[in-house]
Amino acid sequence: MNSWGFQVDALDVARWQFGVTTVYHFLFVPLTIGLSILVAILQTLWHRTGNERYLKLTKFYGKLFLINFAMGVVTGIVQEFQFGMNWSDYSRFVGDIFGAPLAIEALVAFFLESTFIGLWIFGWDRLPKRLHLASIWAAAIGTNLSAYFILAANSFMQNPVGYRFNPTTGRAELTDFFAVLTNKVALVTFPHTLAGSFLVAGSLIVAVGLWHVIRNSDSADTGAYRFATKFGSWVVLISSALVMVTGDIQGKIMTDVQPMKMAAAEGLYTTESPASFSVLTVGSLDGSRELFAIKLPYLLSFLATGDPNGTVRGINDLQAQYASQYGAGSYTPIIPVTYWSFRFMIALGMAAAAIALLVLWTQRKGRTPTSKWLLRAGLVMPVLPLLANSFGWIFTEMGRQPWIVFGEMLTRNGVSRTVSLAEVLTSFTAFTLIYAALAVVEFKLLVRYAKAGVPDLTPAPEPVDTDDAERPLAFAY
Amino acid sequence: MELTTVWFLLVAVLFTGYFILEGFDFGVGMLLPVLGRDDRERRVLINTIGPVWDGNEVWLITAGGAMFAAFPEWYATLFSGFYLPLLLILLALIARGVAFEYRHKRPEASWKRRWDQAIFFGSLLPAILWGVAFANILRGVPLDADHEYVGGLFDLLNPYALLGGVTTLALFLTHGAVFIALKTTGDIRERAGALAVKLGVGTAVVAVAFLTWTLTIRSSAAAVVLAVGAALALVGGLAAARARREGWAFTGTAVAIALAVATLFAALFPNVLPSTLDAAGTLTATNASSTPYTLKIMTWVAVVFTPIVLAYQGWTYWVFRKRIGVAHIPQH
């Protein structure tokens, strides 16, 4: 206990570090996942049609993609190391199961992604066109594949399957790897995460395109930007529909495998049948007393169980059940965090879709939007689904608490026993500082390159004394 | 062969591949201020590794993942025990990776200078710290009966481990100089070739001292043979560098690094992290491993995918095989 009356231990700092570094990492990942495919689609359009507009857009958004890609790569290494550094007892406990998807992710997905991204960056005008196009697709597939393996690993923490607890070794051991890979939580979280990522990537394409359409309307490339805003808007609309469909399935699975998380999402203390969906509830600080509420009857029952009269179990019931099942203690997540992160996730995602609709409407039948308000809405647009992604992760991870592996291991038992508070504080501070500095640098670069617009395609004069057969590959660095 | 042995070998192979490949990346990064006298020269140097450095780093991520999957106890103890060195390595790799990508994104000299510093220090720190870390793995560290690391930071900074750090630093510098000589044309190629020879002599002395010390701590017949092979390969590489046979020089330093890493793993086997305290604390390939079922699945995945990865990564090197020089660097 310090002089301010609260106690900080290595566990708290390790949790904050995991939260900060993971949310930060996942600011870049959705863009990498979504833009890799969207840029590959743009390049394919160019390849098929020969229309230079698509080439310009490929190079333009490709540059933004790469500025973002670098950050995703370097912050990803931290994630793999962090399990061993801060969560070594967790690593010991689940390594037999959890390590495999991580290793496979590296071998099968990361090699593909990083090798072919190198070929794509340095292969412009040098590799045969078809091969160059194949490179961006290979990199994009690698990126999207990596999401599957890491989500399968995460899903084991939410809904452990395909294992048994071995009392001799004191750890969870794999009995069915196929069950781990086809965990129903993973199967639905994967499309949900991907759709959420395309929501971000599509929004960025719209924001940048719209800025040029409105602010730069006499540009010779307006046609390209108009195409980009429409293309991005459709991506946003389609992916927001997919986010909703997959989110709905997720809700039902969550009710089944993590009923406490569902109750925590709603701040539902007492079991209800039928249960109403809370649109907005203002409660006491710990969330246990309602002060003001707007509720939609039957909706929660329907969302959680598929039956408008279905029973949704409340926090109090579940807490009592877990206490008798796992021993005395609190098995309830921090309700205001889960309740609000769940709502922010939904609201922010829907807001992006609404703006996309507006953008399409203002460009109907060849019209050109000029509204300053639309421009402003377009500029905040990418931030909305980006934050929705962050809140989604905060919800799903905080909603799992106090467990690190649901029903098997408590978070507080997973932390490294031999790592001191000073060490964790050092690393937490170091990562936070370097991440904050890089965030500023990255954001400024993105803005700079977004403003610069699509490139001029007249080829740069070749440097002197270069024999064509000896010509090396393109220079990107 | 037992699956635990197979995975000990695979982890060894992954780290060996990582040190050969990222070894020259680190070397290029550290030689940036030495061999790159102006911005165009520095761009030549960075572009020699531009298309491949990211793929090279995946060897580390795969090695870490393989360690986690096959030897969770080893991964858990090592990563929590070597906390601060690993933290520094992570920070260095973050700064350096971003620097490659961002350096050329703005024209200002001050901007480039800052990223050049990130590349230099981001290469220097891991080049030393990996040697320190692996020397400590070989030497052993204080582990209690639960296999938990009970030492402090200063237990890791012993003279043998520091010599290990100097050795990897020297090896990667020489390897990088040889690589630059192999990949460039003109003046840089000449200077890199001359520097490789100078660096190589000192490197050979340090490396032989380190390997000899290693064999006095822990040894096996295989380790002795590998250590002698490493020394011979390094000397051969140096002779080739002197004769400006750059392909052979690079082969020499690459083989030397491979055999030096192999020496450590051969001397270590069957241990993976010896304890300097209670012998019961020692982690071995057996008591640190996953279940046979997990190892079997991982073996199948490795058997299927490793050849594919090696094929396309090797092909990339072939695609980017051309030498580059300042004449190729565009003006903008």
From TrEMBL, chain B:
Pfam family, one: Cyt_bd_oxida_II
One of the GO BP terms on file: aerobic electron transport chain
Cellular location(s): Cell membrane
Entry membrane topology: Multi-pass membrane protein
Major localization class: membrane
Highest taxon listed in the record's lineage: Bacteria
Biological source species: Micromonospora globispora
Cellular component per GO, a single term: plasma membrane
Family: Belongs to the cytochrome ubiquinol oxidase subunit 2 family.
GO MF annotation: an example: oxidoreductase activity, acting on diphenols and related substances as donors, oxygen as acceptor
Keywords recorded for this protein, A-Z: Cell membrane, Electron transport, Heme, Iron, Membrane, Metal-binding, Transmembrane, Transmembrane helix, Transport
Annotated protein name in UniProt: Cytochrome d ubiquinol oxidase subunit II
Membrane spanning residue stretches: 6-36, 82-99, 119-140, 160-182, 194-215, 221-241, 248-269, 297-320
